[in-house]
Each structure stands twice: as structure tokens, then as C-alpha cells.
Amino acid sequence: SEFNALRQGMQLIGRALPIKLHSQVEVARTPEEQRALNAKWEAEGGHPQKRMMAAIDALEDGTVLCFDCGGDMQPAHFGEMSCQLAYSHGCRGMLLAGNCRDTQYVLKMPDFPIFSFGTRPNAFGGWIITEVNQPIYLPGHLTHYVRVMPGDFIFGDNDGVQLIPKEMVDEVLLRVEATFEKENAEREQIEAGMSIDEVYRIFGVL
Hints:
Blueprint: E1 4-5, E2 12-23, H1 31-43, H2 48-58, E3 63-68, H3 80-88, E4 91-100, H4 103-106, E5 114-119, E6 127-132, E7 136-139, E8 145-148, E9 153-157, E10 160-164, H5 169-191, H6 196-202
Parallel strand pairs: 2-3, 3-4, 4-5
Antiparallel strand pairs: 1-5, 2-6, 2-9, 7-8, 9-10
């Protein structure tokens, strides 16, 4: 599977907040079992989704939620109401190795790009958040899997998604700026009608 933007032209930019999901079979719980589970969650800081939202709120604005869905492609893992809540507390997009839903509403949000494997109409379908702000692994292109650490820099556009390890962000951005300036200068000369011989003599293979 590959990450695709919900709409061409979306750009995903920000620091990673990794989230791991785990598929689970829905089972009917007795009232006692549900109370015990609720007590366990409360002792841990609340329902797992609440803990995820609290982690967003605790970070600087610009967080990108990154989801390892464990390869489960049956349900939709995130919908519009959760997107709205995350956005209102500083999240600025999502990298979802799974499916999203409510896309007609998500696309109306002013600045919430989503890159996912696909869409599904059904809601939960049997999964739960198991880890918040811990390293995860997502499918990659140059390597089979890419490790996503908290705070890594995520950039996505029409061509795909890239990750910059947090300790390399400054160095990479300086190189990107230099490349950007160089290619802008080359582009101006090519657009102005530079001859093919001159292009390859001065710039080499493009």
C-alpha cells in the first residue's frame, strides 16, 4: 500500500506524534468487566484516544499524527470529529497507514491534510490505541519499513511522503534551501530559452 493525499495539492508538514493501533475482536463485556476496564484506563490517564488527544495538546502546534495500524485495512481508523478535535488542539495533519472516513467533511477543514492508504465508510470495526508518542514503523519506499520517532519531521506532497530524523532537520533544510535557490536560477534561464547545448554544458544532466 502507498500513502496518498485525500486531494491533490495537499502538503503535510510538521513534527511526528507516532501512534500505534492494534486490531481486536469485539466482545460483549459484562458490566463488571467494563467497569474494570474503565478503571484501568482512568488509572492510565483516560481512554486511549483521550490520552492521544492530551499528547497533542501538550505539544507545540504543528503536530502530525502518524498511525501504525498494524496492517489492518478493514475499518476506517479516523473520522471527521476526531480530526476536528485534534485540529483544535494544534494538530496539523495525519499520516495514516490505514483508512479514513467522513472525507467530504474533512476536505472542508481549512488546513488538515491527510495522507492515508484509502477510505472506508465503517467506523471502528475492532481496534484500539495501544501506544502514544512511542516509536512506530511505517511502510517505506527505499526500505521496507521506516522507523518514525517522536519529533521526526514529516513532509508530504503530490509525490509522496518523506521523513527527516529530528537530529538531521536543520542540516537537511539548509541543503534543501540551497538546492531550491540553485534550481530556481536554472529554471529562469531554461524558461528564457537557453539553448540545449548551453543547458547541458552549464547544468549537466537535469
